[in-house]
Amino acid sequence: MLFRSSNLPPELQIRIDQHLTWTMLSSNDDKTRFLTLALCGEAGELLEIIIGRDFASLATQDDIQKELADVGNYLYMLASHTKVDLPVIIAVSPSVMHAESIALACEIVVTTGKLANLVKKSWRGDFTLEEKAFEFQKRLKFVSYSVFYLAANLGINLPQSMLDKMLEVEEREIYRNRGT
Questions:
Q1: 167-180 mean pLDDT
Q2: Which of 7, 93, 103, 127 has the fewest CB within 10 Å, making it most exposed?
Q3: What is the DSSP code (8-state) at residue 7?
Q4: Shortest CA distance to 75 belongs to which of 40, 24, 114, 29?
Q5: Does residue 94 register a pLDDT over 60?
Q6: Is the pLDDT of residue 42 over 90?
Q7: What residues have CB less than 8 Å from 142, skipping those under 6 apart?
């Protein structure tokens, strides 16, 4: 039985469960490493979009919403896989301030990097994630708070955006596998 977050909409939780079972990784450690690396990559893409690679191309709200959905999906897949119940926060008044958005995106990148470092040290044998469970959960929850605060700050319904992104990924997979 897969772990279920008590705070996600049921349809989104079902999709997360499905994506976790589709992952073709041999061990729990491999899946934890893959999900952590994917989360870090998506956090970096989010920051890049918010800052604007060359400042001439400002990101649209839709671009930011899709990257936040990617971060949210990998965050909740990692939380579900490691059995960490994360909060869903949506009660923040939108106030679109570019500087605050950049700061929140930086926090997300820094904290996912620290999370990846924990996973790396566990993988190389310094300790187990169970031994560092408090720190691992604390970092996951901090990323969750930052992601949901950023989404709310920008007026984005993150759970719905995450579900929309999951459905988009499923459509791509169906299209790819059509010929097989």
A1: 75
A2: 93
A3: S
A4: 40
A5: no
A6: yes
A7: 107, 111
Please list, in sequence order, all residues whose beta carbon lies within 8 angstroms of the beta carbon of residue 37, skipping any fewer than 6 positions away.
116
Structure tokens at 67: 């990257």
CA distance 141 to 145: 6
Contacts of 111 (CB under 8 A, 6+ apart): 139, 142, 143, 146
Q: What is the pTM of this model?
A: 0.79
Tokens encoding 58: 């400002």
- For the four alpha carbons of 104, 7, 116 and 16, in that order, the dihedral sign comes to negative
d(CA 101, CA 47): 9
First to last CA, the chain: 30
Provide DSSP, 11-71. HHHHHHHHHHHH---SSHHHHHHHHHHHHHHHHHHHHHHHH-SSSSSPPPHHHHHHHHHHH
Structure tokens belonging to residue 75: 């965050």
- Looking at this protein, which amino acid is placed at residue 8? L
Which of 82, 62, 77 shows the shortest CA–CA distance to 154? 62
